[in-house]
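Minutes, methods subgroup
Present: GH (chair), OT, SY

1. OT presented the first of two proteins processed in the latest run. Sequence and structure tokens recorded below as shown on screen.
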Amino acid sequence: MSSSPLKRPLLLAYAAGSIGSGLFSTVPGLLLLFYLTDTLGVAASLAGLAILIPRIWDIVTDPLVGAWSDRTRSRWGRRRPFLLAGALLLPPGFIALFSAPVGDPSLSFAWVLVAFVWATGAFTLFQIPYASMPAEMTADYHERTRVVAHRMAFLPIGILAGGALAPMLIKASGGGPAGYRVMAVTLAIIAAVAMSVAFFGTRSAPQLPAPSESAGLREQIRVALSHRPYRRLLLGFAVQNIGIGAVLAAVPYYCHYTLRGGEAAVTVLFVSLVGPAIVAMPLWMAVSRRFGKRVGYILATVLFAGCALSLLSAAPGRLALVAAQVGVLGVGFAGLQVFPFAMLPDLVDDDAAVTNQRREGIFTGLWFVGEKGGLTLGAWLVSQVLATTGFVERRAGELVTQPEAALVGVLVATAVVPAACALLSLPLLFHHVESARNRAT
């Protein structure tokens, strides 16, 4: 493992994989609940289960794949075979996810549930080893921030394609089930290409050999979670992702029922989110070099919470104002992406210094349990808020009038839940800063 700067072509090829990651992380989180309730006619409470159950499957498979990649020996190294497997298996699962039969809500529910289990499993094969790679690509503290910043600079492209292009494709294809199918096929092709570039373009990436001996999965999980700074950071990161998952799932409802702007408003808000997020990456890198990663992480969290709460002021006809608010939110969102992932390899090094074992995969696998679990809980919370406040589901083409309580529920899910989650994570981050101040600076 080298401390010298990595070559730009390698960084760009590695970062390209995050386009596929951004697509799959965004589209189901943004559109799947809305697709179930407002196209397939599935009740909100049942639709939440179609999202929750596959993510519980993720909680099992993420650490399994992480530990598996730690032990893998191949001519392609420990991580890269998984990148290829994910690139081949995810696209058909993603297409199936938005190709559910229409008519019987129970059949639609079952189809989406099975397809989502397939897609999440395929995504895990790619994402866990992929995110483990920076810890063995370089040993330099700031170079790791550079690697992650490149990845996070490409991530918004995937997020933008998922959050802005996806609604445009659905609308341009006539909406309804056919529009969702066209969207899924188009974005699946983009994801497959991006993930393949990450596989082929990282042939020269520094890698570490698999350990000659490795503890069992249960012991590896125990060791990882006994690392106190890692455990605190993981918990704070997971709580934040509950809020991010909530705002993603709530945005289509927010655009349709609060702003009354439909798919066009969804596209505008995602462009407003992602554009500033890309521009903000050099800003957060500068903050990291000047004040440390943890201080930057706290600043980004506070900014995200404040901007999320400001979304309570939304009303029909205020799309331009809301877009500006979301733009500032995007700056905070960028920090919430770059800092925790840049801090993770440092914690892997802390563990290796004590145990003499490189456990990038298991640390990353548990990390994504926190991320995916948080995003899923956020989406599930939105479904429960909608069900509790009397939201009326519909099939494509039907017109319904939502009760006032459901409209209030949409606002709460979009603004209050994410802000509360961000603020709840702060004590863990402040405590972590104090316990690791010397390493951070």
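2. SY then presented the second protein from the same run.
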Amino acid sequence: MTDATLDRLVSDLHDHLAATATRPVREDASRWLGEAEAVAGDLAGGPLPDDEVVRARLGHVEHLLSNVETTEDDEADDHVAAARDALDEALAVLDDEA
């Protein structure tokens, strides 16, 4: 896969997390999602740093999302699921490049 694929996946990850900010989610989930969005936004905001930095930041996002079981909003839950899918794909891209 190419860097463009990783860029797209990181952007998708961020977009789905950002979409949860406009939804009426549980307060505890909101804190985790907000921090995950900020970390993903740092990556999506410009050229990607080296793979190890990207992997570490995506690992942090993965940890943050592991604390979100439900948002109690179906649309937000769909965005969280899509964000997890983009995250898994991005990590797979990094593993393929290693």
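Chair's summary of item 2: Residues 74-97 form the longest helix (24 residues).
Next meeting: continue with the remaining queue.
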